Amino acid sequence: MPGIDACLEEAMTLPGALGAAIVDWTSGLALGTAGQSPNGDHEATAAETAELARAAAEYSAFAPTARPPTPAPASASDPGGHAKRPATATGTSASASTSTSTSTSTSTDGDGDGDKGPHVEDLIVTTRTGYHILSFVETAFDSSVFLHLWLDRGTGNLALARIRLGQLAERLVLE
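and the corresponding structure tokens:
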């Protein structure tokens, strides 16, 4: 199982790899870097990518939710699917509606099935000249680490890089 340095070295062997980093997304600190940085400063890049990773990990828009309720089938007498209430004392009828609500947790501790990390597996940002892949690493402790790989768009293979980075994230042992 590779440590930080071996993991970064292996990431840099991917076709089109320009730079790689292992970043703690809660603090924004780079735990290790290799190659170039998109803005010339590995620490600034780590802080900027950590903001993106933190947003994806913490926003409920990316959390798994329960399936939405299935609407009741429409009846033949009411194609809109609305159930009719009996006539009221004034002799009019009113449509009855029911609503179902589900609650979701925005916790990054998983969805109750023992997951330690965020619900997001990875993020891909495409720029005019490159690809940025942020792959979350599940660890035994707080799972606040991700791998960031910067690829040249002309020579990189996004699909291969995503698969290999995911494999590296699974095997990574933080020293």
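(Above: one complete record from the training split.) The first helix runs from residue 4 to 12.
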